[in-house]
Amino acid sequence: MNGAHYHLVLNHLPIIIPIVGLLVLIGGFIVKSEIVKRTAYCIFILGALAAFAAIATGDGAEEAIEHMEGISKNLIHEHEEKAEVFALLSYLLGIGSAAALWSNWKKKSYANYIALTILVYCLAVLYFGQQTGTTGGEIRHSEIR
């Protein structure tokens, strides 16, 4: 396996995991379950770890494909820029989720406000995840350019 293979194995997780976390968090609000909300926070933390793994394998993927015929260095650069922003936002979602998990666990009066903030922030993170995924797909899939 080369760098591109590792990246392909990991790169969908930072997008999919927050989608699952968002659905779980919304479910926590619907059923009014603090345990379900805590589960969502743990999922968001896992998503931040997945973003770290995906970004860590990006350079290896670039080295593996940058000299292949039909590969645009401009598309790789654009994807890399979007991925760096998405990763940073994912890390912040993970950190915020850790704070939300703590406040929920300690039954702080402001825990529900943090939960709502995490929910809205996750939507913004997913927007950047979509941008990152699309630019990554454009590198090898000319049909979506």
Q: How many strands?
A: 0
- Uncertain segments of ≥5 residues (pLDDT<50)? none
Structural class: mainly alpha
Distance between the termini: 27 Å
Overall tally of structural domains: 1
Q: What about the largest sheet?
A: none
The shape is elongated
The helix content is over 70%
Q: Output the helix-strand order.
A: HHHHH
Q: What's the helix count?
A: 5
Radius of gyration: 17 Å
CATH architecture, please?
A: Up-down Bundle
| Residue fraction in strands | under 5%
Fill in the CATH topology.
Four Helix Bundle (Hemerythrin (Met), subunit A)
CATH class: Mainly Alpha
Mean pLDDT reading: 95
Keywords:
145 residues, mainly alpha, Four Helix Bundle (Hemerythrin (Met), subunit A), 5 helices, 84% helix, elongated
Structural description of this entry:
The protein has about 140 residues and is mainly α. It has a single domain, classed as Four Helix Bundle (Hemerythrin (Met), subunit A). The chain is built from 5 helices and no strands. α1 runs antiparallel to α3 (about 35-65), α2 (about 15-30) packs antiparallel against α3 and α4 (about 75-105) packs antiparallel against α5. It is elongated, with a radius of gyration of 17 Å. The two termini are about 25 Å apart.
Q: Can I get a quick summary?
A:
This protein has 5 helices and no strands.
